[in-house]
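Proteins fold reproducibly. Next comes an illustrative record:
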Amino acid sequence: MPPSVSLPEPADRAEPFCPYFGTCGGCTLQHFGPPSYMAFKQELVESALRHAHVETSVLPVIEAHGDGRRRATVHARGKAVGYMAARSHDLLDIAACPILVPALEQRAMSMTRPIAATIGDCDVAFTATDTGLDVAVKTERTVKPERLTLLAQRLKPARLTLNGEIVLQSRPPAIKIGKAVVEIPIASFLQATAMAERALAKLVLEGVGSAKSVADLFCGLGPFSLRLAETARVYAADADRPGIAALQNAVRHTRGLKPVTAQVRDLFREALVPTELNAYDAVVFDPPRAGAEAQARELAKSRVKTIVAVSCEPRTFARDAAILIAGGYRLDQVTPVDQFAWSTHVEVVGVFRR
């Protein structure tokens, strides 16, 4: 839970559906009834904006839990396999996680157990893709990948890697984004739920409107770029080299897209400056939790007409929004998107215009 977020007593209560609620550190809001839950998520955004002295109305929260989270990291320590316990450094052994997509709800734990029995303590990151499970194993021990080969053949993931090295790949893990199919690099980032990715993309496309040239900054694999490219020329930038390569590969193999230029660029150290930004009708940015302060300061000095900011941290979103507003932008719309079910986190999309 973010350090500045206090958990109020809900006005209406619900019966937690997970048997590990209260002992697992993953979910803290399952006892909130629906009205209290949505009000809490809304307040996360509104309070962050108030603290940054940003005055605007916040639209109702969009619920985007979908079929559950498609990503999970499971820890194995000794005989325990699961998540960290609440308010503790201890590991809670669990059998299943009901907030995950069906493909992971039980399998994430049941697949981790034989992996840990084979190589010892480890962390296993799972991603459910359209072509199967991507399983990324990390351990501090020196382990030859061959030790997991037979096990990987039995478990049948789409891909299994050990410390970034492929042990077995029966087919590339991939997801569909708009018209494109994107092969997922090892340890790549995806939104927590597929429904949230679609909801965020819809808000981005609506915010950009009829723009014919768009810069998509902190673009990742291109969940916005590939959809934007159906109607606009796109410049996409991110420090994630494998992600940019995956985006470029998807563009090459997808018909019907406008030109997409994808570049590896560290936007924290080398933000686009106004002379570059002014070439675009609109700019989209979706940074990590730390926000995009350096890029926001350059955007504030630019002549870009429309900016769509996406954030997984309301406080850094509010800070960056204040920078843009001080530079002459108005914040037309703020929409919370709840993909982090039963947690104290919420996604935010803001549309700024000159």
About this structure: The CA atoms of residues 60 and 76 lie 39 Å apart.
